[in-house]
Every structure is written in C-alpha cells, then in structure tokens.
Amino acid sequence: MSGTEGRALRADAERSVRAILEAAERVLAEEPGASMEQIAAAAGVARTTIHRRFASRQALVEALAASAAQQLAQAVDDGRPDTAPPLVAMHRITANVLQVKGAWAFALEQAAGPDGEAAALHQDIARRCIALLQRAQADGLIDASADLEWVRRVYYALLGECLRDNPDGADPDTLAVRIVDTLLHGAGPRT
C-alpha cells in the first residue's frame, strides 16, 4: 500500500469514527439506553464497524466524552483566553462553549473517569478559566477579594442554566452577553 492509500484509509476511518460519535450523541441524547445496533443504524455503518472501533458500549461513551471535551477545549482556545482582553475573551469563550455544549449535551454530561482523557481536559479547562478570571480580576472586572473558584463555579452554573432554559431562543452571542453581564454585575442596579 502506498503512503497515499494509507492516508486515504486513515481519513476514511476518521470520518467513520466521527459519524459514529455524532450518531451516538444524537441517539443517546434521545434514548440514553440505546444499543450499539441503534447507534450503528443512525451512523449508517455496520454494527461490526462500531465493534471494530470500540470494544464496548462504555468505550464508545468514553470516546464520545473525550471527543466532546476536546471540542470544548478548542472552543476555549478559539476565544484566546491568554491574549485577548479579558472581557473580550470571556464573551468569545462563553459563546463558543454554549455552541459546543448545545451540540454535545449528552457527551458532556457523562461522568469522566478520574484518569481518563475527558477528565484531564476538563481539569485543564477549569485551570484556564481560573487564569482568565485572574486576568479579569487584575483588570478590575472582578472584585480583588472575590474567591475565583466560586466565581468559576457560578460561571459554569450560568452556562448550564442558559442551556437548560432558553425560552427566547437566543443565539449563543446574546446568551454570552447575558451570562458575562450577570457574572460581572449580578442582578443589582447599574450605577
């Protein structure tokens, strides 16, 4: 097999895995107890293809969680948390994260094993969130005495609330404004 054929085969295998993961997200979000056969049918692949790629249903769910966590990490990276002005980065990251979390809700709700790839990615995202909050604090956007771990937890809760209940059908950018404004200013009057 030539190098070109090997790359084409790898690209084909990557597309197959991507189709399986996307189908798994759709199917499992609707029916968490769905079988591998149901996921294979939704992905348009043979059941044996899924079993060849994933040793078990749990392995598929873990791969799904890791893939979603990678996309979440990329959403954070795309917001330039280390270089953009903190307020700009907070808005960009929030809108990006809302898009990923909206598309991969099932996968991101899965409890990651403490030693798994998804858990490591979530820990790194939390660390980067704290670093951005420290930058925002240094710029005077957050009170100097604020407990940044608490602020991070409140921020995560605001993200979750917007995803659970968006009666206006607001887009991620509008929701990002609402989340960041609430995080930085609360519900008190603007002075």
Automatic annotation (TrEMBL):
The keyword DNA-binding applies. Pfam families: TetR_N. This is TetR/AcrR family transcriptional regulator. Residues 14-72 form the HTH tetR-type domain. Gene3D superfamilies: Tetracycline Repressor, domain 2. Keywords: DNA-binding, Transcription, Transcription regulation. The keyword Zinc does not apply. InterPro entries: Homeodomain-like_sf (IPR009057), HTH-type_TetR-like_transc_reg (IPR050109), HTH_TetR (IPR001647), Tet_transcr_reg_TetR-rel_C_sf (IPR036271). Residues 35-54 bind DNA.
